[in-house]
Specification:
homodimer, Creatine Amidinohydrolase, Chain A, domain 1, 4 domains, six-stranded mixed sheet, 17% strand, globular
Chain lengths: 688, 688
């Protein structure tokens, strides 16, 4: 992603022809504006339809203009990228800039102004500076009077990768929990140092520890006016541009006006005059809109301010508004330039009202600005998060439909794999590509919901494995192969993991692998079958997925499940299944059920379905209403890895019923050969 | 309990004879001091040995002096008690006193200076004032310019009882969670009111809500110098007196000096110079001493200050020190009068050190005093709580031994009940008395660990039922009878619940009761069999005890288990099994396993064993060490209430193995008839 997009300036050859075509079409923009627009488009991930950005130039550009626009974008993509200075020079440039600005250090987080999980290219500052491109991390850069020090902090997933990517002569490399950044800073900072941070890139809580550590050393943290790294990153991509469009009411199930009234009532109840929303998924949900600014999640980068009357101002790059957006939003929504956002915060302060802001996600800059403008701040969770997590009937219907199509694609993949693998030529990359190709052919497909995890043998044991050319293994018969993948569809988001025995001559799982797989499956089934009263949290249920593993003296080191959005983030809160998930599981919430087992250097096992929290069938003679889970993911679980003797009769009955449902639901969507394969794969467990 | 003890003054007849005997024995006290001592003894609960207090007069008083002391105590007990003014007059007297002192109201908690679970007679202020004698509650008294208002707040257990005991014309009666005291106060208080509270009776957190509520009404909370209720309670018992004695090292397993060094090291690590201990169980554990100042728990009311060098000052009524206490404590322990405690806090402040105090248990007065003396306060959990909960090998061995004796007594009771009940003449009170009598005959018995819950039929459905003459039911054949009871022994504390079918002609449990009982049992067994990694909390495991009930559409509204002490509190923290128990379960901790089911107006079911957290047997091929529970309570579970078809084979195997262990362990302690009964009661479930 990084560096694929660049700002462009000047006029190129053929601009006069483009200008003429634009004029003829009645487009408002000239060639220079279109080049700047394309630079933004190239800073967003490549969408399923590579031409969809053109609506931002003209609602129906016509063939000639479209060809011209396509060619211009291609020429801008093709231009060879300036590799820029090497890491040592980048670090030196940053230090020089800091010193010039009166700073002695800088905090470089992995995070953007929206606390996105998947970052736009422009926000990959940590990767640009240090070379480390993992999904989480932090760098601290000090200028130091004598020996200038810097450090990169990563978690356990990235301890190997970071050593490949980061120059140990430039940076101390540290484990972020075992050797916290606070300790490094307290030790490395010198008295009197002024260490900068970009107040747009940190929520307040995230800085508290570093601030204390700096103070311990007699140093201080101070916000920068302009990001000094951005100033020295000459080739930094611009903010991403992708069309921001309405999300159809038939998928959302609830109009934006109604949602806004509910949130506004919540504000009024808490004596707040307004809420500042800085989280794009909340804004996407509240206004029923979707974008494509970041990888894997249909978000539009934007901020919003909703007042207690239900009126809302949406702040974003106005060039991103698709032609039908304004009508969709209606008159209660002011569409404003992102440039106006700070002034709007000032106005909130001047009004003297109480303003709700979520300290877990909103940037420090928002708090500082509001406070200095005189606002009273109510620190509270983003009020959209909980209603967003409780899906509407339409969202659930859509998600179920998406899971049926997605399941058919996955079954096609598994059938293909069983046929292709015995030849010993299928690689992890090829398998992942094949699966993504099958999804891409599906109705309403909008891309992957995350980069597939495709791991054979020992690679399957790497929990957050991302296959690269360097790690790419061929699936050998007898291997366990773990594939965790998902798609974004207009009607829903999927996320599914299956672990299969790679078929081939003599391929058979050993007793240990079958024991482990069966224990993972027993945990999966115990959680899937759970019945519980309203108010029960994921922290209470997590143990159900682990009991069989614990009895076997093993465990897995990740949560059992995460919340999932509706054509939104594949990871969403506040619901989840883990010992830290203290949110009650309410009807309509979607969570994953994904226990696993990982044997380092050997194999990994994970079985993941998505489930919806739903009212349970009342028990005969029961007194209290109960909730349970409806499993919505549909794909067979490999019978070759199950040890039937370890299963209870209830567990076997659940599996057989699930397999029957998979077969009955998906067969009509499959070609004859695949349906036959599925019939075989979903036979009752007792049937040999 | 209330009002049984009184202060006495003046000299009575026969004092000259007593004086002579005291002089002859070389006792330090004269008759007047002995009368005051006895007044304190009478303000403590009656111990198993009613003469044990005499060591506080003389280590071996001799027969003549002992007879005289016994007679004097009897005469002081026998004197008819002045019933005192009626509740209206008491309330009026309190209001007059408040007004005279410049206060407009007063907070009357159910709690004492030590946050004891079981209160000494002197601290039953809520009961004296209002008539309500439940184990939890709160009164607020306002003086009011026009209509003086007052209210009593109780929880769901006491909503019926409070209406019998409290005059609704004097007090508003409120449900403490549905109609919180804060709301009542915010509404009832008038602007400018000064509402007093006794700063020795509240930890700081407990007042925060009331303080805010008062402020909302324009009123304020203010500490009183002397408790105005004590001032008008003319017949208030003095502080209790009972001998404070060493707790033998063979039971404690760890010397006090070693414990103090550990806590002192903990203080040093946290830069604290000292810790103020205000919780009697912590002091009892730390100094290996026991007393008998409050009902059901062998505590000595005392405060202590431990410094980072391991030296400790123990503050208490010095008359309570048994003759061998000083030698046991040794030279590193200063035994000081409670009167010196405040001066000692002042001295800590003058030293300017950092002082650890637990805001969950220590009185506001301690914080105020330390702060005004200039101490820096480190608010942190009482550092004795966690090591106290992790029992030593000696404590566990002792507890196991106590459970064997206790189990034999309970088996004797159950056998007696089965023989006696069919005649239809056994009452709840008689049954409880019989059971307590059997325990009282046991070696090392020191009293009940709580008042037995003995409930037949609908009374069994009252979770915290305490049988009284008014509620006393006869156990009818066919009833379910629930008995929850426990004993204190020098070597351990027990707590066990059994629910049995009352035998008799045609007595049979209906299908619903058997279904419920079996689901409770399944939950009990699932928890008992749990295997889990270090770090797992009771909040994570609680669901295991509920799963079978939830699947049946039912639940129970209490935690599944509480921590239990070692010849200390039958309720102790921080360990527990409930959704609020976020303490990791460490090896050596004792918790109860007591799921239940309650059908209001019909019957109650609870099956309770105590379990010890222990290392689990390693699984074949397991990779990680696991923990599990060792069940230590030994008593049969009524097979007549089990529906075998609902049990899994693992559950049946557990029950049969447990019953075999009960039989093998207890039979040698039983007479032949009882052993035969037990053999029948513990037959394998499949054997009809």
């Amino acid at each position: 992603m990084v560096g694929r997009a660049r700002t462009e300036s000047g006029t190129g050859a053929g601009d006069e022809e483009l200008a003429a075509l634009l004029r003829a079409a009645g487009a408002a923009q000239g060639p220079e504006a279109v080049r700047a627009l394309i630079a933004g488009v190239l800073a967003a991930p490549e969408p399923v339809d590579p031409d969809e950005w053109m609506v931002l130039v003209h609602p129906s550009p016509g063939a000639l203009l479209a060809d011209k626009l396509r060619a211009l974008k291609a020429s801008m993509t093709a231009r060879p990228r300036d590799p820029g200075p090497d890491p040592a020079a980048r670090l030196a440039a940053l230090r020089a800039r800091l010193t010039a600005g009166g700073f002695d250090g800088f905090v470089v987080p992995h995070g953007d102004e929206y606390q996105n999980e998947f970052l736009p290219a422009r926000a990959e500052r940590l990767a640009w500076l240090t070379g480390f491109n993992g999904s989480a991390g932090l760098a601290l850069v000090l200028c130091g009077s004598q020996s200038a020090r810097a450090a990169v902090f990563v978690d356990g997933r990235y301890t190997l990768q970071v050593r490949d990517q980061v120059d140990g002569a430039l940076y101390d490399i540290r484990h972020i929990t075992d050797e916290p950044a606070t300790e490094w800073l307290a030790e490395a900072a010198e008295a009197g140092m002024r260490i900068g941070y970009d107040p747009w890139l940190h929520p307040p809580g995230g800085l508290a520890g570093l601030r204390k550590a700096a103070e311990k050393a007699g140093a201080a943290l101070a916000p920068v006016e302009e990001n000094p790294l951005d100033a020295v990153w000459t080739d930094q991509p611009p903010p991403p541009i992708s069309p921001v469009r309405p999300h159809d009411l038939r998928f959302a199930g609830r109009g934006s006006a109604e949602k806004r009234q509910d949130i506004a009532a919540n504000l009024a109840k808490r004596d707040a005059g307004a809420v500042v929303l800085t989280s794009p998924p909340s804004i996407a949900w509240l206004l029923n809109l979707r974008g494509a600014d970041v990888p894997c999640t249909p978000l539009a980068l934007a901020y919003a301010i909703l007042d207690a009357a239900g009126e809302i101002a949406l702040f974003m790059d106005l060039r991103k508004a698709a032609p039908d957006l304004a009508e969709h939003l209606g008159s209660a929504v002011q569409l404003r330039s992102m440039k106006d956002f700070e002034a709007a915060l000032d106005a909130l302060g001047r009004d003297g009202g109480r303003v709700m802001v979520d300290p877990a996600v909103a940037p420090v800059a928002v708090f500082d600005r509001l406070e200095s403008a005189g606002a009273e701040i109510l620190r509270a969770a983003d009020p959209c998060i909980l209603p967003k997590a409780r899906k509407t009937k339409a969202e659930l219907d859509g998600t179920r439909a998406a899971h049926i199509r997605d399941g058919a694609a996955l079954v096609g993949f598994l059938a293909w794999l069983e046929a292709a693998a015995p030849a010993g030529k299928v690689t992890e990359l090829a398998a992942a590509k094949h699966l993504t190709g099958l999804r891409a052919a599906l109705d309403m497909y909008r891309g992957v919901s995350f980069e597939p995890i495709s791991g054979a043998g020992p690679n399957g044991a790497v929990v957050h494995y991302r296959v690269t050319e360097a790690t790419n293994r061929t699936l050998a018969p007898g291997d366990l192969y773990l594939v965790d993948s998902g798609g974004q569809y207009l009607d829903g988001t999927t996320d599914v993991t299956r672990t299969v025995l790679v078929r081939g001559a003599g391929a058979e799982a050993d007793a240990e692998a079958r024991d482990r797989f069966t224990r993972v499956l027993k945990g999966h089934i115990t959680l899937a079958r759970a019945v519980f009263p309203a108010g029960t949290t994921g922290a209470q249920l997590d143990v159900l997925a682990r009991g069989a593993l614990w009895r076997g003296g093993v465990d897995f080191d990740h949560g059992t499940g995460h919340g999932v959005g509706s054509y939104l983030g594949v990871h969403e809160g506040p619901q989840g299944i883990s010992k830290r998930s203290h949110q009650a599981l309410d009807p309509g919430m979607i969570v994953s059920n994904e226990p696993g087992y990982y044997k380092t250097g050997a194999y990994g096992i994970r079985i993941e379905n998505l489930v919806v929290v739903a009212t349970a069938e009342p028990a005969a003679g029961g007194e209290r209403p109960m909730l349970g889970f409806e499993t919505i993911t549909l794909a067979p679980i490999d019978r070759a890895l199950i040890e039937p003797a370890l299963m209870t009769s209830e567990e076997t009955a659940w599996l057989d019923a699930y397999h029957a449902r998979v077969r009955e639901t998906l067969s009509p969507l499959l070609d004859r050969a695949t349906a036959a394969w599925l019939a075989e794969a979903t036979r009752p467990l007792g049937s040999g």
